[in-house]
Amino acid sequence: MTAQAPLISGSSVVKLARGVKLREDPVRGHVVLLAPERAMALDEIAVRIVRALDGERTLARIAADFAAEFEAPVAEIANDIEAFVRELSIRRMLEFVE
Amino acid sequence: MSDAVTASVGAPSTRSRPLPPMAMLAELTHRCPLACPYCSNPIDLTKANEELATEEWIGVFEQAAHLGVLHLHLSGGEPAARRDLVELTQAAVSFGLYSNLITSGVGLTEARINSLADVGLDHIQLSIQGVSPEGADRIGGYKGGYERKIAVARWTTDAGIPLTLNAVCHRQNMSEIDAMIDLAIRLKARRIEVATVQFHGWAERNKAALMPTREQVERATEIVAEARVKYQGVLVIDYVPADYYSSYPKACMGGWGRVGLNVTPSGRVLPCHAAETIPGLSFETVRDRSLAEIWYEGEAFNAYRGEGWMPEPCRSCEHKKVDFGGCRCQAMALAGDARATDPVCIRSPLREHLTRETERLSATASAELVYRGR
């Protein structure tokens, strides 16, 4: 049986897979990412990244947009985004558009 | 009277308010065409005419969402035996609950799966009993079940619904774990649960026929570890190892009354599906009391919540933060006392006896299966 995990780079374009949902959790007062048998409480930065995964922009484009908005070094932001996206990918939470 | 008031006003309770539940298992029905010999349903199955009506279930889902439940597992029995499954799913979705259908697949058609997709079902968890029609259908006690499951898997992924395979493993199918993982890849599942049989409900009656051997359990653990590396990013593998061969007990239910709750077909609210095997606990129903009151104040939920109930050696053990004292129903079944240290634990005085008994059961040459409900 062969099956290959997608590689993640600045040119990846991803969005949340069907069955993975970002929602407010008013009872506990935070935002959670829900997937089968998983609930991840996200901090504000993680929520911003997840919302940016729109299936249109590359990860490099998203990093550049954040760098401009927060006046922060783009390389650092790109690393953070790719590391976070890799974690979501391992958990099968993403759909790869390209 | 005044003493009681003084006591409750004077000193703050040592028990802090429990956290809200994360997950609810709704056993919509106990009806099921299959007869798996390890079914977690109780021996005393609820009859169809005792089941909650559609509006009652919808009311329970709404209460659950307000209480803080995030994941709703629609289970059974076979939930597809409920004619109102699509309506119930639609209601659950409307309350923002993450809806997961736990099914044998029997009773689902392509049209019904498409209807479930249309109303927003988030996920399907499909059971498999083995990787060949003969073997799987023998365990499930239902001819044609395997072929139907393969079709249901295809309809599910065709409809865009994410799929998990759930494989309960025991001595009679444990040599197929690698083939089950391959099947999950072939059926385009995103996830597989490889869950060693837990000896509650009907499984308790089939211990001699289902108890895996030590060699099987060790091999299973190796196969899972290898497959997790090989399929990283392709298939999520959740593994429930055989606790009878472990040194410490499982963190049963993530702690009693801590993470989740079960609602039976007739609306009784339980801390876990086997809780009714513990004598002396009284269970309340959603027909008499709100879900929130039962969760926070119910006697059964508070019986083994937190650490106050624990005897030694659990009370002073650092593992209590990890395993919450293990499984109360297992303590009841094996030690005859629901407060006892889970006999799986190496610190239990019963551990040596359990090890000998486990080896004896796993070496039983042949044992007839007792099928659920038959």
Structural notes for this entry:
The complex is a heterodimer of chains A (98) and B (374). Chain A is of the alpha+beta class. Chain A is built from three helices and five strands. Chain A has helices at 44-52, 59-70, 74-90, and strands spanning 14-16, 21-25, 30-35, 38-42, 94-96. In chain A, α2 crosses α3. Chain A starts with 13 loop residues before the first strand and ends with a strand. In chain B, β5, α7 (177-186) and β6 (191-196) form a beta-alpha-beta unit. Chain B is built from 14 helices and nine strands. Chain B is globular, with a radius of gyration of 21 Å. Chain B has a nine-stranded mixed beta sheet. By secondary structure, chain B is of the alpha/beta class. Chain B has helices at residues 2-10, 54-67, 85-94, 110-119, 133-140, 145-158, 177-186, 207-210, 214-230, 291-297, 299-303, 320-323, 328-335, 351-362, and strands spanning 23-27, 71-75, 98-103, 123-128, 163-169, 191-196, 236-240, 260-263, 269-270. Mean pLDDT of chain B is 94; it is low at 1-14. The interface between A and B is medium-sized, with 22 and 29 residues. Chain A: Monomer. Interacts with PqqE. Chain A: Pfam families: PqqD. Chain A: This is Pyrroloquinoline quinone biosynthesis protein D. Chain A: Keywords: PQQ biosynthesis. Chain A: It comes from Sinorhizobium kostiense. Chain B: Interacts with PqqD. The interaction is necessary for activity of PqqE.
